[in-house]
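User: Here's a structure from my thesis project, written as structure tokens. My advisor, Dr. K., wants to see whether a designed sequence matches the one we expressed. Can you design one independently, without my sequence as a hint?
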């Protein structure tokens, strides 16, 4: 029987969740999409800042924001599938609750950008400023996930060390 999160302390994964995480093909997908999205973000950020500073390259900046938003949607959809496979729910699993909450803000801002772009609701400078707000929220959210990844790696290393000590004592 799996231990509840409360009975295992601050652990991100119980034994069954860790097994499902390690066996899921979506873990690899997330591992590929996350750095890809970050690379797209860096390029796009440069193009947005260039436009804001010089007024040049609006089309390139716009395309890059749309591509970044598509990458965000891809990672959110596949991340929800991953979360369901590992934790049994598509979003807001206790281990990633606050990351998912903040992800909703990130999605809302990126989606607002697309809505404003396609309806003509904002002028180009306003659109780029909205993109920067979306990007700031993305940086915070990416940091949340990087901290969770680090915690998971430390947890795995500690578990391996304890297992090694247990085997050495036998």
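Assistant: Designed independently from the structure alone:
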């Amino acid at each position: 029987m799996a231990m509840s999160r409360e009975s295992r302390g601050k652990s991100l994964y119980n034994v069954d969740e860790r097994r499902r995480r390690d066996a899921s093909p979506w873990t690899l997908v997330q591992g590929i999409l996350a750095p890809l999205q970050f690379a797209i973000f860096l390029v796009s950020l440069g193009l947005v800042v260039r436009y804001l500073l010089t007024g040049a390259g609006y089309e390139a900046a716009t395309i890059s924001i749309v591509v970044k938003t598509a990458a965000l949607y891809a990672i959110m959809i596949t991340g929800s599938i991953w979360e369901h496979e590992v934790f049994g729910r598509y979003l807001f699993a206790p281990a990633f609750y606050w990351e998912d909450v903040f992800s909703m803000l990130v999605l809302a801002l990126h989606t607002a950008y697309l809505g404003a772009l396609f309806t003509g609701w904002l002028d180009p400078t306003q659109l780029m400023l909205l993109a920067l707000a979306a990007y700031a929220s993305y940086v915070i959210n990416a940091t949340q996930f990087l901290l969770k990844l680090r915690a998971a790696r430390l947890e795995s290393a500690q578990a391996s060390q304890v297992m090694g000590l247990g085997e050495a004592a036998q």
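When you compare it with your expressed construct, this may help: The two ends are 25 Å apart (CA to CA).
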